[in-house]
């Protein structure tokens, strides 16, 4: 037989493993959820693959997950007969971390010294398979890809290297065996060889998994006694029992589903370790039947603003998992929404291309979008604190919708809020801004810039301050992009305080003043001729001697800077 080969973990993987080994995360139970979730994914993938590839030689007769406990050896094995992995798969999927945002995650983790901060970060990131090393000091994974004959065994203690070798007789699918760390006698709650404990974890975290999760029944003392007298040999084959109830949560009446079940389901599909901020359910009957169970997370994922950020909605057809990251079901600016849409009348063979063009899918997407927007609107009026969390985490993404989705623009403006001169920390809705507008004030004034401090120190603000006009402080890059296109909110147009001749009414400069400053202005115009178009007397300043303004049609300075940075 071939020698086991020793390979090194990629450096980011090594760092993550160190974190797991010295686990700073207190809820270790979730390792089992991660392994069962991987097994369930593997079964989904196999079923889907057999629909796509009729020639695939795979055994799909009894797809399931199986848990085996061995008290004496102190091992726990999670086995599935799903898609399995080739040798290359194992090296690429288990030996490295391909997730976007890993580097940033690790950098932030280094920065946040306190354990609580680290827990939050881990929750945001989700660590999957590696969480095994929170409870195991050695992990053995044996796998064979469906349709192939070559099995592989992978083994590691999580410390820098792993071994990999071919095995001859591996069954289809994957078995992960955890060699559990020495028992903590003080605390039986962490005994993962206890049937009771494992059963409880499965019920709590994986009850809705649609595949059966089976566990070997441990012989009761009574059985053992019988076995002694009769000497039955069948006792070697353990009897298996299905532990989870397997009910698709989205298909159950909402009155029967507890908040906790929703949250566990959310964690399963999102790989988030924190609770969702909001749960949204939808049901449509009639010509095009579907059910949707959507979640708004309580924290933005690391990759929210990365190019390859995933969209979080999964598509099922009649309870069969079809695809992750279904972009046809959710507009890009709501990419943080997670969940499941189960449609009744689609083919199991649908492709992403077909979905993009499907009229009914587009109709579902429009309804989901409206529903999410109205949910946020309700949150805004009924739970200000929750809404504040939402906006802090996702506001920047939502504002992209102002550009991308003209059809829902006013609904998006309605659920948006902005920093303003009215309050030092609390952002304001446009509705509130309008309600505070001064007599005679016609526009919603704003100023864009790099930061609040920069904007607050801008001479442009002086006259507005003096008049008591509130000004929105827009500091996100995306703000530059939408303010020009959007026009206004409820008849009030947006107006930059840095552009054109802002007419604040009243105190015009007098002819006398004009005459007095004429020579100076001429001289300045001549001197600055290469830099500015015109030098004029203004009433907009109160304490600063001068400021630079743009023409009404001009780009804002920040936008100009952005374009320059892009080389345009
Ligand atoms: P995630 O599940 O978020 O992708 P994991 O760390 O849990 O991250 O798993 C990494 C990858 O390893 C999975 O995406 C999958 O491709 C592969 N994998 C893990 N467990 C299994 C399994 N039981 N069967 C097949 N592939 C698996
Ligand atoms: Mg996983």
From TrEMBL:
<dbReference type="Pfam" id="PF00183">
    <property type="entry name" value="HSP90"/>
</dbReference>
<feature type="binding site">
    <location>
        <position position="85"/>
    </location>
    <ligand>
        <name>ATP</name>
    </ligand>
</feature>
<comment type="subunit">
    <text>Homodimer.</text>
</comment>
<keyword id="KW-0963">Cytoplasm</keyword>
<protein>
    <recommendedName>
        <fullName>Chaperone protein HtpG</fullName>
    </recommendedName>
</protein>
<feature type="binding site">
    <location>
        <begin position="100"/>
        <end position="101"/>
    </location>
    <ligand>
        <name>ATP</name>
    </ligand>
</feature>
<dbReference type="InterPro" id="IPR001404">
    <property type="entry name" value="Hsp90_fam"/>
</dbReference>
<keyword id="KW-0346">Stress response</keyword>
<dbReference type="InterPro" id="IPR020568">
    <property type="entry name" value="Ribosomal_Su5_D2-typ_SF"/>
</dbReference>
<keyword id="KW-0143">Chaperone</keyword>
<feature type="region of interest" description="Disordered">
    <location>
        <begin position="219"/>
        <end position="242"/>
    </location>
</feature>
<dbReference type="Pfam" id="PF13589">
    <property type="entry name" value="HATPase_c_3"/>
</dbReference>
<feature type="binding site">
    <location>
        <position position="80"/>
    </location>
    <ligand>
        <name>ATP</name>
    </ligand>
</feature>
<dbReference type="GO" id="GO:0051082">
    <property type="term" value="F:unfolded protein binding"/>
</dbReference>
<dbReference type="InterPro" id="IPR020575">
    <property type="entry name" value="Hsp90_N"/>
</dbReference>
<feature type="binding site">
    <location>
        <position position="99"/>
    </location>
    <ligand>
        <name>ATP</name>
    </ligand>
</feature>
<keyword id="KW-0067">ATP-binding</keyword>
<dbReference type="InterPro" id="IPR003594">
    <property type="entry name" value="HATPase_dom"/>
</dbReference>
<comment type="similarity">
    <text>Belongs to the heat shock protein 90 family.</text>
</comment>
<dbReference type="InterPro" id="IPR036890">
    <property type="entry name" value="HATPase_C_sf"/>
</dbReference>
<dbReference type="GO" id="GO:0140662">
    <property type="term" value="F:ATP-dependent protein folding chaperone"/>
</dbReference>
<comment type="function">
    <text>Molecular chaperone. Has ATPase activity.</text>
</comment>
<feature type="binding site">
    <location>
        <position position="352"/>
    </location>
    <ligand>
        <name>ATP</name>
    </ligand>
</feature>
<feature type="binding site">
    <location>
        <position position="174"/>
    </location>
    <ligand>
        <name>ATP</name>
    </ligand>
</feature>
<feature type="binding site">
    <location>
        <position position="38"/>
    </location>
    <ligand>
        <name>ATP</name>
    </ligand>
</feature>
<dbReference type="GO" id="GO:0005524">
    <property type="term" value="F:ATP binding"/>
</dbReference>
<keyword id="KW-0547">Nucleotide-binding</keyword>
<feature type="region of interest" description="A; substrate-binding">
    <location>
        <begin position="1"/>
        <end position="352"/>
    </location>
</feature>
<dbReference type="InterPro" id="IPR037196">
    <property type="entry name" value="HSP90_C"/>
</dbReference>
<feature type="domain" description="Histidine kinase/HSP90-like ATPase">
    <location>
        <begin position="27"/>
        <end position="184"/>
    </location>
</feature>
<dbReference type="InterPro" id="IPR019805">
    <property type="entry name" value="Heat_shock_protein_90_CS"/>
</dbReference>
<dbReference type="GO" id="GO:0016887">
    <property type="term" value="F:ATP hydrolysis activity"/>
</dbReference>
<dbReference type="GO" id="GO:0005737">
    <property type="term" value="C:cytoplasm"/>
</dbReference>
<feature type="binding site">
    <location>
        <begin position="124"/>
        <end position="129"/>
    </location>
    <ligand>
        <name>ATP</name>
    </ligand>
</feature>
<feature type="binding site">
    <location>
        <position position="34"/>
    </location>
    <ligand>
        <name>ATP</name>
    </ligand>
</feature>
């Amino acid at each position: 037989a071939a020698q086991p080969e020793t390979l090194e973990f990629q450096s980011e993987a090594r760092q993550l493993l160190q974190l797991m080994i010295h686990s700073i995360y207190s809820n270790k139970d979730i390792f089992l959820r991660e392994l069962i979730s991987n097994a369930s994914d593997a079964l989904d993938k196999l079923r889907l693959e057999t629909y796509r590839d009729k020639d695939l030689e795979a055994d799909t007769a009894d797809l399931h997950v199986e848990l085996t406990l061995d008290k004496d050896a102190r091992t726990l094995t999670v086995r599935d007969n799903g898609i399995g992995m080739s040798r290359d798969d194992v090296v690429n999927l288990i030996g490295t971390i391909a997730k976007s945002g890993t580097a940033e995650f690790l950098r932030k983790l280094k920065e946040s010294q306190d354990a609580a901060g680290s827990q939050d970060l881990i929750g945001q990131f989700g660590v999957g398979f590696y969480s095994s090393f929170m409870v195991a000091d050695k992990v053995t994974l044996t796998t064979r890809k469906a349709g192939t004959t070559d099995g592989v065994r992978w083994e590691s203690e999580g410390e820098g290297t792993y071994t990999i070798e071919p095995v001859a007789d591996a069954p289809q699918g994957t078995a992960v065996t955890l060699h559990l760390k020495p028992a903590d006698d003080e605390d039986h709650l962490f005994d993962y060889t206890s049937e009771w404990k494992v059963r409880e974890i499965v019920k709590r975290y994986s009850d809705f998994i649609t595949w059966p999760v089976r566990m070997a029944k441990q012989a009761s003392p009574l059985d053992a006694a019988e076995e002694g007298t009769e000497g039955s040999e069948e006792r070697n084959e353990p009897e298996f029992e299905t532990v989870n109830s397997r009910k698709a949560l989205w298909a159950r009446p909402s009155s029967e589903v507890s908040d906790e079940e929703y949250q566990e389901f959310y964690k399963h599909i999102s790989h988030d370790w924190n609770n969702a901020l909001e749960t949204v359910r939808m049901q449509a009957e009639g010509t095009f039947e579907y059910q949707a169970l959507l979640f708004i997370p309580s924290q933005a994922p690391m990759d929210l603003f990365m190019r390859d950020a995933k969209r979080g909605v999964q598509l099922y057809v009649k309870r069969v998992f079809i695809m992750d990251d279904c972009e046809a079901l959710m507009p890009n600016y709501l990419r943080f929404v997670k969940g499941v849409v189960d449609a009744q009348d689609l083919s199991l063979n649908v492709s992403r291309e077909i979905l993009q063009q499907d009229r009914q899918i587009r109709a579902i997407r429009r309804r989901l979008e409206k529903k999410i927007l109205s949910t946020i609107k309700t949150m805004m009026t009924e739970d200000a604190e929750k809404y504040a969390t939402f906006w802090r985490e996702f506001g920047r993404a939502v504002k992209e919708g102002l550009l991308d989705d003209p059809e829902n623009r006013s609904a998006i403006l309605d659920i948006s809020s902005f920093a303003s001169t009215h309050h030092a920390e609390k952002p304001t809705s446009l509705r509130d801004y309008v309600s505070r507008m001064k007599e005679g004030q016609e526009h919603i004034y704003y100023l864009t810039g790099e930061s609040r401090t920069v904007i607050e120190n801008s001479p442009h603000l002086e006259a507005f301050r003096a008049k008591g006009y509130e000004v929105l402080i827009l500091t996100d890059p995306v703000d530059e992009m939408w303010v020009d296109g959007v026009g206004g909110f409820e008849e009030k147009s947006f107006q930059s305080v840095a552009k054109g001749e802002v007419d604040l009414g009243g105190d015009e400069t007098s002819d006398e003043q004009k005459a007095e400053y004429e020579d100076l202005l001429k001289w300045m115009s001549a001197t600055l001729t290469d830099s500015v178009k015109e030098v004029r007397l203004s009433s907009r300043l109160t304490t600063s001697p001068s400021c630079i303004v743009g023409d009404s049609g001009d780009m804002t300075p920040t936008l100009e800077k952005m374009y320059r940075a892009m080389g345009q």
